[in-house]
Specification:
Elements: E1 6-11, E2 43-47, E3 52-57, H1 63-79, E4 89-92, E5 98-107, E6 115-124, H2 127-132, H3 134-162, H4 165-168, H5 178-187, H6 194-198, H7 203-221, H8 233-241, E7 243-244, E8 250-251, E9 259-260, H9 270-278, H10 285-292, H11 294-305, E10 309-313, H12 317-327, E11 338-342, E12 353-356, E13 369-375, H13 379-392, H14 401-404, E14 408-412, H15 425-435, H16 441-467, H17 473-482, H18 490-497, H19 502-505
Parallel strand pairs: 9-11, 10-12, 10-13, 11-12
Antiparallel strand pairs: 1-3, 2-3, 4-5, 5-6, 7-8, 13-14
């Protein structure tokens, strides 16, 4: 059976109210091949914000699209095969039309073989976009199919109990030619529509809504960005973390992030999760600077840049996670490995940032590290100050910063890790960026990215220099001066060398 319902994406101004005049002439189909009754043009949903309308109709309104959809439907149900019966598959042609297809069957007591085959297809001209959307599309298409199968199975069970299956089978008559086939088919019971198989008169309206959401959400997931100049070091690190299939497809959504999942064996309760979600969170690195003060933040940032492990502790999971997210922007991605929240300490070799509760004991054999403790105010103090703050800012866009200022913060090094006597240059530049009143919050992170890229380039030069055997003090000083660095910057550059991409670490 050919898939009769298609979804077309057009501009609002070009959406016809009725089927176009130049629509291809097609014969009248049986009930099984019809999506709408006579006189019903279809469904339309308009997105006012993006000025896009989504149309579900019996046939595409553009003549050139009709041939493409028809060919894709026929190939999906007859010409193309896959190893699994219900697995999605991909095919295309020389004209640049690419199709993701998912075949499935619905039980039908009146159909030969007691099932009827259907197919949901996604047609695109952009092959890369379609393949990168594969996990998202197949996940939600499977959900649609499961919904249809559940309804069809219920109808099948009900009809099987009411009527004997043998009596419902179509008659078997010798086939002489195509005319006799038409006579037999006309004398037999007609194929039933999707409405009858699912006993749902609103099934096509349901499909229209789900397809509309699928098209809109799928188009908003991935944003194409123009790359200007060579890729940055951090983008190269990201590309090296992507996994590829045997066919060369990039599995964008199968690769785990640098955030290592929590390794606690003790599950947390729903009450704990609910309380954590209500806790205030840090939205910007400047929030941390404000609540910690310059002295504590300066010490914390210096520990981060030279490679000491950062241990963030608080009772609220969301608060710890937000603090780590604000601190990780100061490190290159290759140097940043995170355990967001755990009830067991993770060693320095496994993660550079680790979040945990205040009651988690720290081992005595810690590597160089710094601890940031965030303790909630006493209950009687918080009840008045926090309640008053929330009521004052209820009508405004309250972000919890005033509540965060009521917390008690402390930073210390349990290993008494020594900091350099002279502060690294990149530290001074990053602090200057945060303290600049002329720089908006939205520009801080891009500015920090530029700083990190600048110093990663210096780390590349130093890495190549060490690989060729350069280790003399005079030569080292000349090299640092040549790349615009000082002796106090060496500890930062040596740590950042460990976060370089494999491409730059490969010495030829």
């Amino acid at each position: 059976m050919e898939c009769a319902s298609t979804s077309n994406l057009t501009d609002t101004g070009s959406v016809p109210a009725s089927p176009a005049v130049d629509k291809p002439r097609v014969p009248v189909h049986c009930e099984a091949c019809r999506s709408f009754e006579d006189g019903h043009s279809g469904f339309i949903s308009s997105d006012v914000e993006s000025q896009v309308s989504y149309i579900s109709s019996q046939y595409p309104h553009q003549p050139e699209v009709y041939g493409i959809i028809r060919k894709a439907c026929v190939r999906s149900l007859s010409g193309e095969v896959c190893t699994g019966r219900d697995c999605p598959f991909f095919f295309g042609d020389d004209q640049g039309i690419h199709v993701l297809s998912q075949n499935f069957s619905l039980k039908d007591i009146l159909s030969r073989g007691f099932q009827r085959n259907y197919s949901i297809i996604v047609v695109m001209t952009d092959k890369i976009f379609l393949l990168n959307s594969w996990p998202f599309l197949t996940k939600h298409i499977h959900q649609i199919i499961d919904e249809l199968k559940a309804k069809a199975d219920a109808v099948y069970i009900k009809e099987s109990a009411r009527y004997p299956i043998r009596d419902q089978r179509p008659p078997t008559v010798p086939l002489r030619n195509h005319r006799s086939y038409r006579q037999i088919r006309s004398n037999a019971k007609p194929a039933r529509s999707l409405k009858d198989l699912t006993s749902d008169n609103q099934v096509f309206e349901y499909l229209h809504k789900t397809f509309t959401w699928l098209l809109k959400a799928g188009s908003n997931r991935l944003i194409e960005r123009m790359m200007e100049g060579p890729p940055t070091e951090e983008s190269v690190v990201d590309m090296e973390k992507q996994e590829e299939t045997e066919e060369g497809f990039v599995k964008l959504f199968y690769r785990k992030e640098d955030v290592i999942p929590e390794c606690s064996s003790t599950p947390h309760s729903d009450t704990e999760d609910a309380e954590s979600k209500l806790s205030p969170t840090f939205e910007h690195p400047r929030n941390l600077l404000k609540v910690l003060g310059y002295a504590q933040f300066h010490e914390l940032l210096c520990h981060i840049l030279i490679g000491h492990q950062v241990i963030v502790r608080a009772q609220r999971r969301n608060l710890v996670h937000s603090a780590i997210q604000c601190l990780k922007v100061f490190l290159p991605k290759g140097c940043c490995h995170i355990v967001s929240f755990t009830k067991n300490y993770d060693e320095w070799r496994r993660c550079s940032f680790v979040g945990m509760s205040l009651d988690v004991p720290l081992p005595g054999n810690l590597m160089p590290s710094v601890v940031l403790d965030m303790r909630e105010p006493a209950r009687n103090e918080a009840a008045d100050s926090v309640g008053m703050t929330r009521s004052m800012f209820a009508a405004q866009n309250y972000n919890g910063l005033d509540e965060l200022e009521s917390y008690r913060y402390s930073t210390y090094s349990p290993t008494n890790s020594a900091l350099p006597q002279k502060m690294p240059t990149v530290l001074e530049k990053m602090e200057k960026t945060l303290l600049s009143e002329d720089l908006a919050d939205c520009l801080v992170e891009p500015f920090l990215t530029c700083l990190k890229e600048e110093w990663l380039n210096k780390a590349k030069v130093l890495y190549k220099y060490t690989k060729v055997g350069g280790n003399r003090l005079k030569e080292d000083a000349k090299l640092l001066n040549l790349i615009g660095a000082k002796e106090e910057d060496r500890v930062v550059l040596e740590f950042w060398m460990k976060g370089l991409s494999l491409q730059n670490q490969t010495h030829h």
